[in-house]
Amino acid sequence: MFRKNWYLFTPLAIIGMPALILGYYIVSYGYPVNEAVEATRHFLQSGTRYAMKYTDRHFALVRPGMGGQEVFQHLGVPFERRNNDTEWLYALPKGLTQFYHERKVIFAKDAKGIPRVKEVIRAFHAE
C-alpha cells in the first residue's frame, strides 16, 4: 500500500513540517504564536550569534529586579551595551541577515543608583 500510494503523504509532509517547526519555537523558545509564525516563515533565512557565555537556560533565570552583577554572573559579558549602559544585548544577527532571535536585558537604576533589571526581551527580530 505505502509503495503504491506514497504520494498521498506529500500533503501531510507539506503541512506537517511547518507545524513541527512552529511547535518547536513555541515550546523551546517560549515564543507566543505570532512570533513563532514569524520565526517559522523565516526559518532558513535567520541567523543568530550569541555572546560567549550565553545559554537559553541561564537567560531564563534573569528576572525583573535582579541586579546587574547577578545578570553578569549568569550570562557573562554582553555583545553590546547601549543607551548609557541600560540595554545589554546578548544576541545579534549573524552576517547580513535581518532575522534573528533577539535577547536583550533592559536596566533602570534604583534609588541607590544600582542597575536593576527592568525588562527581559526574548523575541524573534524581523525587520
What does this structure look like?
By secondary structure, the protein is α+β, with helices and mostly antiparallel strands. It folds into two domains: 44 residues, no CATH class; 83 residues, 2-Layer Sandwich (Beta-lactamase Inhibitory Protein, Chain:B, domain 1), CATH 3.30.1450. The chain has four helices and six strands; from the N terminus they run ααβααβββββ. Strands 2-3-5-6 form a four-stranded antiparallel β-sheet. Strand 2 and strand 3 form a beta hairpin. Helix 1 crosses helix 2. The protein is elongated. 16% of the residues are buried. The mean pLDDT is 89.
Short description:
This protein has 127 residues and is an alpha+beta fold.
Determine the CATH topology of the largest domain: Beta-lactamase Inhibitory Protein, Chain:B, domain 1
Number of distinct helices: 4
Q: List the domain count as a whole number.
A: 2
Q: Per DSSP, what share of the residues sits in E-state strands of 2 or more residues?
A: 25-35%
So what's the CATH class of the largest domain? Alpha Beta
Q: How are the strands of the biggest sheet laid out side by side?
A: 2-3-5-6
Shape: elongated
Mean pLDDT: 89
Stretches with pLDDT under 50, minimum 5 residues: none
- Largest β sheet strand count, sense and barrel closure: 4 strands, antiparallel
SSE run = HHEHHEEEEE
C-alpha-based Rg, rounded: 19 Å
Helix content: 25-40%
